[in-house]
Amino acid sequence: MPSFETIDDIPPNSRVLVRLDLNSPIEDGEPQDNRRFSRHARTVQDLANAGHRVVLMAHQGRPGREDFTSLEGHAKLLSSYLDRDVAFVGDVFGDEALGAIEAVDAGEVLLLENTRMCADELPEEPPEAKAETAFVQTLSAVFDAYVNDAYSAAHREHASLVGFPLVLPSYAGRVMVAEYEANTAITTRDFDGPVTMVIGGTKATDVIEVMAEVGDLVDRFLLGGVAGELFLRAAGHPVGTDVEGSELYDDQWERNHETIERVLEERREEIHLPTDLAYEDDEGERAEVMVEDIDEKTTAFFDVGSATVEAYAPKIRDSEAVFVKGALGMFEDERFAIGTVGVLETIGESDCFSVIGGGDTSRAITLYGLSEDDYSHVSIAGGAYIRALTGEPLPGVEALQKGP
Predict the structure, then answer these.
(1) In what order do the strands lie in the sheet with 276-280?
(2) Among 236, 191, 240, 247, which Cα is nearest to 214's?
(3) In angstroms, how far is CA 252 from the centroid of its own chain?
(4) CB-CB contact of 336 with 303 (8 Å)
């Protein structure tokens, strides 16, 4: 258990400032529902039910991007998961925000405006510098406690994440505790049987770094996605290169091929590569080809093949723990969901301890009607999950542990 206190330790009748991560896809100007709202709702509900005066802050997008917008819609979405309304104020720490904070009664909930609309928030600086900003100094003066529930943003040194713990009594929310325990299990827990890591996705640079860092903590790797093709390329197969309309492979190969080749050489027995790949044929249907039959890559591959899924299944069933980072194919297209869904189904049916990495992979669970209850933990973290797997420190967690 990490060395920080939880929301159960907050003194009664406190005015509490709570950092959530409600960053969401934006469509037609409105935030889209996702796991983050339902997960964070438990922390908010528990705090409100305990009689605290609850004030929330979160971010959405970055300045200059299309998804950089107000949090007014987020307040409405969050309300749908609570038994009370979430009020909203279009200000972060100015007079309007301070007035709204003062008006919050016991058991009421208020959401402040997007923290990234505040100039003090974004530049990544040490916690000591962030603690001195006007943003942190102004708000901390009107609160009794700070809660960080935004594990998925804890890899950032932003004011709302690392500044407040230095000036206020600080506590971990429900999401923070659950994510921390599950995502660090690979380094903090002893497993009696094999530990397997499923590696996929399009951002091969991230997962290759994980493979290089986890060392003896993982007994076998099951590869797919872009990383799978790049490792096949390192093994001498004519794949893992860009074709017309694709820019995923050559650049990542240039940046990572030395690491890929080294990891493959050092751990060849533990690394399991796809034996077949799936592509779109001339009729627009899914087709599969054995890797050993590929003489030249002339078309894009969108999934691992059925033989690969079949070969990975017994390795998963034999595992004591399985950690997933990245989808094995372009599962958003049902034709190319066999790899990702097949592996997730096998994990869900087994008795292993399982952590499903955040982002796209966890989205497949909802998209294909799988049950979260079949997994030990479905993470809502992306970058923070990567850091946890590699043992890198998370500034938001460290600040919370350090305290004022």
Answers:
(1) 286-290, 276-280, 303-304
(2) 191
(3) 21
(4) yes
Same domain, 109 and 34: yes
Token digits for 252? 């990542």
Matching residue, tokens 């397997």: 196
141 part of a folded domain:
yes
Tell me, yes or no, whether 41 and 159 share the same domain. yes
Place of tokens 């030249």: 296
Tokens matching residue 323: 């950690």
Reported as a single tens digit per residue, the pLDDT across 173-221 is 999 999 999 988 988 889 999 999 999 998 888 888 888 888 788 999 9
Residue 216 shares a structural domain with residue 295: yes
Of 186 and 31, the one with more pLDDT: 31
Q: Are 400 and 127 in contact (CB under 8 A)?
A: no
Residue 388 confidence (pLDDT) above 90 = no
Residues 151, 36, single domain; the answer is yes
Q: Distance between CA 28 and CA 153 in Å, rounded?
A: 25
Residue labelled with tokens 């950032």? 156
| CATH code for the domain of 153 | 3.40.50.1260
Joined tokens for residue 273: 């590569």
221 & 128 share domain: no
Edge-first strand order for the sheet with 145-148 is 86-88, 109-111, 53-57, 15-19, 145-148, 170-172
Tell me, yes or no, whether 72 lies in a domain: yes
pTM greater than 0.85 (yes/no): yes
Q: How far apart are CA 251 and CA 257, in angstroms?
A: 10
pLDDT in tens, 278-290: 999 999 999 999 9
- On whether both 398 and 304 belong to a single domain, the answer is no
Domain range enclosing 35: 7-180+394-402
Q: Please give the structure tokens belonging to residue 140.
A: 């901390």
Instruction: Tell me what pLDDT residue 6 has.
Output: 96
For the chain, percent of residues with pLDDT exceeding 70? 99
In-domain check, residue 261: yes
CB 161 within 8 A of CB 400: no
The tally of domains found in the chain comes to: 2
